[in-house]
């Protein structure tokens, strides 16, 4: 039972579904007779607000000022972002980055157009900001699906080849650690119970297995640190990947972060025990 518990806690939540954008208002490609006062996004899985970035670009490519990202308390899969300025006529591009509880970032973009007859003069553009969740009212939706942006494996994000290597090392270290635990408890444990006194070769085998287990746990901790940086890089960008506030938001306020902390703590306990 203890071994199964350890397996359940150490295995990261990579088997869970990812947060893909299903629909939005305004919808992708919409031509609006009235400027929108908010953007609403519906995902296939509940997105983590702390790991969500939304950018709205105006017709000239400037960043349009938007409000805080909020989650609908009645629908965990819906995000709402108010637009406190009246949008001028032209085509707008919404770029989104988010992550569900599995920690795997997804991103995409779509455009919509405000018609000239409905628009007011544009307000000055500023950088968008995010905040913690609060109430957001649901609205009517358009079934048009948003078109995903092309994914380019740049830097040390979760789509980069280097991160693939880190994930492979993580799973190899995890399997080695669990294998040593099973060997110590099941194989050597059974041999000890059958012997009247512990033989020297069993002692040596146990010592060697302990060294392997400790090494695997150390590698698991180092790989976890690399994964945390890659996750932050993918969500917040290279300039904010090591920021204290970003790390606190990612590790302390998301299911992925709680699982990451549990994995590191258990790996450290394994090092101490071995």
Give me the secondary-structure topology:
Blueprint lengths: L1 H9 L10 E5 L5 E2 L5 E6 L9 E5 L12 E3 L2 E8 L7 E10 L5 E10 L46 H34 L5 H37 L7 H9 L2 H19 L1
Parallel strand pairs: 2-8
Antiparallel strand pairs: 1-3, 3-6, 4-7, 5-6, 7-8
Helix pairs in contact: 1-2, 2-3, 3-5
Keywords:
alpha+beta; four-stranded mixed beta sheet; 5 helices; 18% strand
Summary of the model, kept short:
With 274 residues, the protein is an alpha+beta fold. The protein contains five helices and eight strands, in the order H-E-E-E-E-E-E-E-E-H-H-H-H.
How would you describe what is shown here?
The chain is built from five helices and eight strands; from the N terminus they run H-E-E-E-E-E-E-E-E-H-H-H-H. It has 274 residues and is an alpha+beta fold. Strands 1-3-6-5 form a four-stranded antiparallel β-sheet, with no helix packed on it. Helix 1 runs antiparallel to helix 2 (161-194), helix 2 packs antiparallel against helix 3 and helix 3 (200-236) runs antiparallel to helix 5 (255-273). The longest helix has 37 residues, at 200-236. Residues 1-16 and 121-153 have low confidence and may be disordered.
